């Protein structure tokens, strides 16, 4: 019988920052670590699909939900400390990292040899310039000027995310459509997820994470956890390139591709995901 009841908890990271999390399910513990422009609420349906077999812990990474804010000196090691605090508090030894959450999980596997199993869903690693972050300066200027829609268009175009229209429509129209979407979301509510306006500044830190790990894939050769490299057949080429690079340095890793799905596959259904498909692969690997 699936137990999809939700409870909440909070841990304190090494620097004193509080990290809030949800708990769904019963069984061995697994942390589901979300990606950019999300909070833990964005993976609730994935957790419910796994809840019959696992106790799923869904943290809100810093700057999201009721977790504490980013510090002025924030770097990737702070995200790793946050995850480490949650793993220590819950006793979980398995992690499913989604997108930028997968980069954090991979780094945590280096710092925490006791991590047993890791699912890395499309970490957006920069392999030889495949995912450049030169757009970040423009993004930061637009955020500072309060032009949230413009900043989101900058980020989504650079990372090749969002609807296919983002790759063909003129920028002025994309900004107008994004402004309309943000206004509607704020008027109607975004459910448990923070709004796009609230999440937009966090994209800066995800981009910095990509820059910090650029061409450093060889470091993951020291990962001792069992690893599943997971991606979608419709995802951008640079994400597939990152998985291939990881496959080369982690010869014992397994790799699986979700036919017909893209980078949003793990998200809740309303956000374009197919979480039950992702759960099938995760469950097969973890059991």
From TrEMBL:
<dbReference type="InterPro" id="IPR050228">
    <property type="entry name" value="Carboxylesterase_BioH"/>
</dbReference>
<dbReference type="InterPro" id="IPR000073">
    <property type="entry name" value="AB_hydrolase_1"/>
</dbReference>
<feature type="domain" description="AB hydrolase-1">
    <location>
        <begin position="30"/>
        <end position="280"/>
    </location>
</feature>
<dbReference type="GO" id="GO:0003824">
    <property type="term" value="F:catalytic activity"/>
</dbReference>
<dbReference type="InterPro" id="IPR029058">
    <property type="entry name" value="AB_hydrolase_fold"/>
</dbReference>
<protein>
    <submittedName>
        <fullName>Pimeloyl-ACP methyl ester carboxylesterase</fullName>
    </submittedName>
</protein>
<dbReference type="Pfam" id="PF12697">
    <property type="entry name" value="Abhydrolase_6"/>
</dbReference>
């Amino acid at each position: 019988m699936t137990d999809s009841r939700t409870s909440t908890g909070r841990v304190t990271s090494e620097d004193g920052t509080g990290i809030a999390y949800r708990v769904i399910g019963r069984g061995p513990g697994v942390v589901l670590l979300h990606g950019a422009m999300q909070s833990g609420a964005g993976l609730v349906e994935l957790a419910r699909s796994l809840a019959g077999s696992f106790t799923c812990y869904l943290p809100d990474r810093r700057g999201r939900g009721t977790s504490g804010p980013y510090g002025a000196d924030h770097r990737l090691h702070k995200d790793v400390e946050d995850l480490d605090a949650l793993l220590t508090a819950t006793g979980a030894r398995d992690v499913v990292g989604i997108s930028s959450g997968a980069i954090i999980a991979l780094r945590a596997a280096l710092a925490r040899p006791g991590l047993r199993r890791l699912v890395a869903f499309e970490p957006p690693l920069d392999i030889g310039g495949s995912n450049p972050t030169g757009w970040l300066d423009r993004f930061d200027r637009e955020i500072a000027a309060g032009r949230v829609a413009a900043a989101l268009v900058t980020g989504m175009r650079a990372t090749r995310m969002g609807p296919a229209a983002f790759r063909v429509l003129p920028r002025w129209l994309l900004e107008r459509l994004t402004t309309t979407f943000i206004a509607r979301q704020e008027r109607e509510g975004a459910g448990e997820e923070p709004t796009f306006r609230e999440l937009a500044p966090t994209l800066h830190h995800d981009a910095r994470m990509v820059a910090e790990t650029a061409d450093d894939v060889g470091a993951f050769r020291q990962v001792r956890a069992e690893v599943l490299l997971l991606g979608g057949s419709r995802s951008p080429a640079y994400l597939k390139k990152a998985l291939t690079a990881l496959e080369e340095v982690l010869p014992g890793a397994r790799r699986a591709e979700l036919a017909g799905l893209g980078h949003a596959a793990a998200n809740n259904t309303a956000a374009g995901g197919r979480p039950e498909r992702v759960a099938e692969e995760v469950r097969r690997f973890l059991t």
